[in-house]
# Entry
Amino acid sequence: MSELIKKTAAELAAAVAAGEASAVEVTTAHLEQIAAVDGQVRAFLHVAADDALAQAREVDRKRAAGEPLGALAGVPVAVKDLFTTVGMPTTCGSKILQGWRPPYESTVTRRLRDAGAVLVGKTNMDEFAMGSSTENSGFGPTRNPWDLSKVPGGSSGGSAAAVAAFEAPLALGTDTGGSIRQPAAVCGVVGTKPTYGGNSRYGVVAFASSLDTPGPFGRTVLDAALLHEVMSGHDPMDSTSINAAVPPVVEAARHGDVAGLRIGVVSEFSGDGYQPGVMTRFAEAVEVLESLGAKVTEVSCPHFKYALPAYYLIAPSEVSSNLARFDGMRYGLRAGSGSAEEVMAATREAGFGAEVKRRIILGTYALSSGYYDAYYGKAQQVRTLIIRDFDAAFAQVDVLISPPTPTTAFDIGERADDPMAMYLADLCTIPSNLAGNAAISVPVGLAPEDGLPVGLQVMAPPLADDRLYRVAAAVEAAFTERRGHPLLAEARGLGR
Amino acid sequence: MPITRDEVAHLARLSRLALSDEELDHLAPQLDQIIASVAQVQEVAADGIPPTTHATGLVNVYRADEPVPCLTPEQALSGAPAVELQRFKVPRILDEE
# Structure
């Protein structure tokens, strides 16, 4: 195994810029790791070896010619398979898009290419990002690199697993209800849901448009910040993108510091259903933050208990509308025969998996006349109340903290046909999606009872994403010093 | 209020999903359980609370009305299941009579 795959994105970018390693060497090392371990992990749906090497050669050519290099020049990035990418398939983990090659590039991946990043392939995911385990993929599950019998979380499970298995130092995900933070937590890596609107959804296949947020995965807080900065910024092609400066996340990640910071523990996110080892590590993180000079208090957000039910009305409602476009007429699968209506129904029946069907029907129900006010309308009012809870909390504290998810990685198959049990994985992450603010999950150790990774969630007000990185960098530094090595050095799922 | 198998079948038709009988048997009780759970939102006294449709508060976002490059017909049709005369070819949409 090449030592290059153990380096951080920051180290790789510096090595390529200094000529200590070529982009082709770095890319080759990661492609070799993918070839060695992905048969077990199955993080990738598509490995773009030739395309990646061509991108790497272009970086090396630019360097040799003395042309300016981008911030991520020569750094491999794995891309969740719902960012449209020219030259690579985009399936969203769905048979309805099997083999589809989009004719346009997402803004986020274009920004990555412009910064010299090498896109090594497309990662597995729950179909159309609906799920918390990556088992809802139409192409089979991804496995957790810590323990191959466990799920990697989801929906961005392939991206989290790719980073944890050293197949890429960085990966792109999307977070609609926790789909970056929860897989990051259970795979022992860093994952951020930026402020909604902080980056572009153009070319991000829509699940729930008012909630979908692209974001970064990395093995270190600084790496996640580097990707966060490159992918972010206003885009006229997305009318919901915010025309404001990107928060100084890299600067914050380089200066982890919580001295004097007011930190609120969300009192609603504990108790029944929370695994003891998750709470042990959370309590330890609170002690570490206090020892570093933070002022930690408890804060109540009384409406957060309604976030999960509100989410499972709002997100499916948007799904029932957004996924109407998959009708077998203009792209993707076409099945059945007869009238257009019969072909549409046969195509959607054949192309969608069980969870997508559940949510389409649930959303159609919630939006039906007669039920609209009682379900969708009420859920939108709950959304207002959750924003008010956050506003009240952030008037008292600078950031909020909680576990990112109530348990460590669960067994493959354990919750596969129990939707309500699966939905609970997103209990602590959903409020930030409903409010559109920023949140991160950073590793804080292993649960004593099962030896699996546990994360800490930090939440900040909209456009204060830099606060996440200040806190996460301080936590990461303290735990790494205490442990003597990065957490991932303890991952044994791949027999290291 | 419980949701019946017949209601699920009706919603599936509205959603253009040709569900099998087995799927209906499986999905209907699950949806009933999910709907019973999400109905908790009705516990919240929400009189006079405005709904939130999205979190940024942005309204009426405009950009300059300038022509920019767009997809060619070949690109737009590149993923089509069937194409004829530079158009999407689709099954009949009207009844024959």
User: Anything to note?
Assistant: The mean pLDDT of chain B is 91.
